[in-house]
Amino acid sequence: MKAIAIVFIIFFLFVCNSGSVKVVDGDFTFSLEAVKKLKDLMDDVQLKSSRMSSSAVLCAKPALPEEFRAVCQSTEAGMVFSRLKTVADQADICEICAMAACTGCF
């Protein structure tokens, strides 16, 4: 259990920018609102995609917020999107900054 917590913390580092909540995964930083939009797209892609990987289908969507385009170029896109979905699934916790991946609450 301790190892899982350590891995989680490594993947989600703290970043303090402004008063808005930011979600950090490695070198990538996203607004919580964009992560929520991503979750909606991911739910839609998951229902419709069967042959292609979810991340490839997701990256092909014009509705994907621009801040995620850099993730699409990464070899870790599938894992990054998966971790971001975990954050979005628990967005209420993130909004009160009780999750290590979320920062910026004042």
Top keywords for this entry?
single chain; 106 residues; mainly alpha; three-stranded antiparallel beta sheet; globular
Fraction of helical residues = 40-55%
Q: Structural class of the helix and strand makeup?
A: mainly alpha
What value does the average pLDDT take?
A: 74
Largest sheet: number of strands, sense, barrel closure: 3 strands, antiparallel
Number of strands: 3
- Through-space gap between termini: 30 Å
**DSSP strand (E) fraction?**
5-15%
Overall shape: globular
Q: How big is the Rg? A: 14 Å
Put simply, the count of helices is: 6
Widest β-sheet, arrangement of strands:
2-1-3
SSE pattern: HEEHHHHHE
GO cellular component, one term: extracellular region
Subcellular location: Secreted
InterPro entries: Guanylin, Guanylin_sf
Organism: Acipenser oxyrinchus oxyrinchus
Briefly say what this structure is.
The chain has 106 residues and is mainly alpha-helical. The protein is 53% helix and 9% strand. It has helices at residues 2-11, 32-48, 54-60, 69-72, 77-89, 91-95; strands spanning 22-25, 28-31, 102-103.
